Amino acid sequence: MLICADTKIPFPRSLVYATYRDKLVELVPYMPNVRHIEVKSRREVDGKVDSVNEWHGGSEIPAAARAVLSEDMLSWTEYNTWKQAEFTLEWRIETHAFTEAVNCSGVNRFIEDGNNTVIESRGKLIIDPKKIKGVPFFLTGTIAHVVEDFLGKNVEPNLVAMSVGVMRYLEQNP
Question: Quick one: 2-172 is in which CATH superfamily?
Answer without folding.
Answer: START domain (3.30.530.20)
